[in-house]
Specification:
- GO terms for molecular function: DNA-binding transcription activator activity, RNA polymerase II-specific; metal ion binding; RNA polymerase II cis-regulatory region sequence-specific DNA binding.
- One of its GO terms (cellular component) is nucleus.
- It comes from Diaporthe ampelina.
- By secondary structure, this protein is mostly helical.
- It is built from 15 helices and no strands.
- It is 63% helix and 0% strand.
- The chain starts with a helix and ends in a 14-residue tail after the last helix.
Length: 371
């Protein structure tokens, strides 16, 4: 076997186990592979040019940054990510304990630090920016998944407060990757579009927003992470507003309020990018309206709040109609014969909202006001 063939097999296997693990964490199924199922080495830190040059032997690995630096760094975290996935999705009816969760959290953070150290030499290479950002988002997604099961309980049980705090901070980091112009990312406030106006559609700088484009236009692992932010952060904000419970108007935590507003703009951009489901935009509009309703305090009239929420939902739905009609017209002009195939609902795009909504009922703070 030639050095090129051997190295390509290692790279292909590395891709297979990564896809398998991501599918498990995304769909909630147990991992299909374990560390004892294979003995393949990780790919070498070898530039493509060295492989295709017709060498009779594989060059020795070196510490210089190459195209394989990010995949190798992620492969180094595979064992702990596999542990997290098994802990969450294994077919064990008893489930794990919170102490085990904290132990996994410690192990995961150590692996995360090592990944950051190994990728530090790539910080000044524009060509590696997308790969390094994606690697960090992948790690944050696993860490968020580890603490997500305790979020609802943490709202009422102080024993899980650590998980609540970690989850919120991790999701804010994920949001900064999803929406680089976010006000919480330290960018100019003017660059962050308002949730009540059409977001700008001018092409972003590729080196800055490639990952954001992939999240907005794609589906699956990365899109689900953004969908989790879209509901968990507003839920945290609403819980804090309720806990405040003062006699006067309630004050907002600025970063959570900013994300809640920006989620609406992001949901609209997803529709502009081709999303044909209005679920995301409709729910984000209702969450923004619910935030405003909660700010009025507990003394506000419940019937009036119900009418306000219903009205905001109707406005959001009506706003979607012209955009969807324009999408249909553009599709007809593009290829009349392929209208059904191209415009049909994509399971990959809509299932992310279905999965998230099933865990986070957005209007749960007003159980007696909505018919």
């Amino acid at each position: 076997m030639t050095p090129l063939a051997a190295e390509m097999r290692r790279r292909l296997w590395n891709t297979i186990i990564e896809i398998s693990l991501q599918a498990s964490i995304s769909k909630g199924g147990p991992p299909l592979l374990s560390m004892t199922d294979f003995d393949a080495e990780m790919p070498g830190n070898i530039p493509d040019e060295a492989l295709i040059a017709g060498l009779s032997h594989v060059p020795n690995d070196n510490s210089d940054p190459t195209i394989m630096s990010v995949p190798r760094a992620l492969r180094g975290t595979y064992p702990v990510r596999l542990k997290v996935t098994k802990f969450l999705n294994d077919l064990n009816t008893t489930g794990g304990t919170y102490e085990e969760t904290l132990q996994l959290d410690t192990q995961f953070r150590e692996a995360f630090k090592e990944l950051r150290r190994s990728l530090h030499p790539l910080r000044d290479q524009p060509s590696a920016k997308l790969a390094t950002q994606a690697a960090e988002l992948i790690m944050n997604r696993y860490l968020a998944s580890l603490h997500m099961p305790y979020f609802a309980a943490a709202l009422h049980a102080p024993a899980y407060a650590f998980s609540r705090q970690v989850l919120v901070e991790i999701l804010l980091k994920i949001w900064c990757a999803t929406w680089p112009s976010s006000s919480i990312a330290g960018t100019a406030a003017a660059s962050a579009p308002s949730a009540y106006s059409t977001p700008p559609t001018s092409p972003p700088v590729p080196s800055e927003e490639l990952l954001a484009r992939m999240i907005t236009c794609g589906s699956g692992f990365f899109r689900t992470a953004a969908a989790q932010v879209s509901f968990t952060i507003p839920m945290e904000l609403h819980e804090q507003l309720q806990d405040d419970g003062g006699l006067g108007p309630t004050r907002l935590r600025r970063d959570l309020a900013a994300v809640t507003e920006e989620v609406k703009a992001w949901s609209w951009r997803c529709m502009e990018a081709g999303e044909t489901s209005v679920k995301g935009f409709l729910m984000s509009a209702l969450l923004v309206a619910q935030t405003e309703a909660l700010q009025r305090g507990p003394s506000a009239d419940k019937a009036e709040l119900a009418r306000f929420l219903i009205g905001e939902g109707e406005k959001a739905a009506e706003r979607c109609v012209p955009l969807l009609e324009a999408t249909v017209e553009a599709t007809k002009q593009h290829e009349e014969t392929a209208l059904v195939d191209e415009f049909g609902p994509s399971p990959g795009l809509t299932e992310d909202w279905d999965f998230t909504v099933s865990f986070f009922p957005p209007l749960s703070h007003f159980p007696d006001t909505i018919p």
